[in-house]
Amino acid sequence: MAETGSGAAATDGRRALVIGAGIVGTCSALYLQREGFRVTLVDRDGPGEGCSSGNAANIGLGTYPPAGILAKVPGMLMDPRHPLFIRWPDLPGLVPWFARYALASAPRRRTAVAQAIDDLHRDVIAAYDTLFAETGTEALVVKRGMVFTYESRRSFEADTANRENYRRRGLVLTELDRDEVHQMEPDLGPAVECGVHLDGTEHTVDPLRLTRAFAESFQRRGGTILRETVRDLETGADGPPRVVTDAATHAPDLIVLAAGAWSGRLAARLGSRVPLAAERGYHVMLPDPGVSLSRPIRLSDRYVVVTPMEHGLRLTGIAEFSGLDKPSNDARADLVLRQAQAVIPGIRTEGMTRWMGHRPSTPDSIPVIGRSPRHPSVLFAFGHSHSGLSQAAVTGRLIGELAAGRPTSIDLAPFRPERF
After folding, report:
1. Cβ(269)–Cβ(233) under 8 Å?
2. How confident is the model over 268-290, as pLDDT tens digits?
3. Angle, nearest 10°, between helix axes 124-135 and 388-404?
């Protein structure tokens, strides 16, 4: 049975404060507004300026934990083409997280994980369509699906289980031979042996502009955005927790914690120790790439996604496990570029820029969505790993349902923080 919220269903006038103005927090704020809350968004940066600005821009894909991952990690770390990197001084602290990750990839657990991800993605597009229509942002979204490329039949066969996940979810996959994939995307190079077209996914031409447009619509409807750094969540016997920032102390009726990779520290202040890793991703942005793609391309052999955007071509990849406060490593972004050049040899690099952001990754690839176990006036909405943009709108809708005291549209038991 789907979880129900607590408190009165009539929410007009109740004050909600959302910590984090990334895409998840901004979508949550919009859906809370639709439920009648007076909503404030708080972030140290402007809307969408964190990890939400640098993603691969895809909506509707999502990721599943691979099978038997633990045995593969040593080979991944030794493979110069693989995107997994771990700073060796950080390894001891990451062992418990990877142990949980290995458990999530075991056959019995993978079935439950996949079901939870499928349930969450069932209404991803519909939840976004509601917001696109209300905010007038339809022009920022392209509905052409995406293409997976393979450089050999062997790699095609190795990816079968992953493709079956998407088929089970209802996406339409069309297999393409060498000629068909090059007809669809002529600027792909000769390394591509075959491919698959996924119908049912979308991409935005600029995730930062999309988040900002959502935030502007939120403000036009009476929402407040504060540029403040959240320092602490104070708890006591005198009512709901209070949000302490570098500028003020806020005492809302409802708090939504959607601070991405920084959420784990704040959740711990409320007694919830969620194993949240800061998984760093990199991108290269090419303003004049010299090639033209009509849709996002996943270079399956290279672990890189290439997305056409309004300001050029974005190349994304890398899973680097390191601390939140460590500097970025340009060599990681340069590896993403080299991998893309191996498959799309016509790429030009003049004017390129590099970026790094922190994905908030849980060890089971399932986000944390639900009430704080000890503080029911606090809702959690974080841990979306590689799928924050995809899952943001449906997460916001679930947060709205919970806050309004209605049954949620999916069972939130697999998403609760207590599962760890």
Report:
1. yes
2. 999 999 999 999 999 999 999 99
3. 80
> Regarding the domain delimited by 1-67+105-140+203-276+362-420, which CATH topology (the fold level of the hierarchy) does it fall under?
FAD/NAD(P)-binding domain (3.50.50)
Give the CATH class of 146-199+277-361. Answer: alpha beta
State the CB neighbour count (10 A cutoff) for residue 122.
15
Length of the chain (residues): 420
Distance of alpha carbon 21 from alpha carbon 215, whole angstroms: 8
pLDDT at 255: 98
- The DSSP call for residue 31 is H
- At position 264, the amino acid (one-letter code) is G
Q: Tell me the pLDDT tens digit for each residue of 143-166.
A: 999 999 999 999 999 999 999 999
Give the pLDDT score at 1: 40
Non-local (6+) Cβ contacts of 150 within 8 A are: 156, 159, 192, 193, 194, 195, 196, 300, 301
Q: Which two tokens stand for residue 333?
A: 């972004």
Between 79 and 44, where is the model more confident? 44
The segment(s) of the chain belonging to CATH 3.50.50.60 are 1-67+105-140+203-276+362-420
Average pLDDT score, the chain: 92
CA angle 42, 116, 98 (to 5 degrees): 80
Question: How is residue 52 annotated by DSSP?
Answer: G
Q: Are 208 and 186 in contact (CB under 8 A)?
A: no
What is the predicted pLDDT for the residue at 68?
A: 58
3-state helix, strand, coil split of the chain in percent (to 5) is 40, 25, 35
410 touches 2 (CB < 8 A): yes
Residues 58-99: tens digit of each pLDDT? 999 888 877 655 556 666 666 666 678 887 788 888 889 988
In 3-state terms, what secondary structure has residue 50? coil
CATH 3.30.9.10 boundaries in the chain: 146-199+277-361
* Residue in 266, 299, 290, 279 with CA at minimum distance from that of residue 378: 266
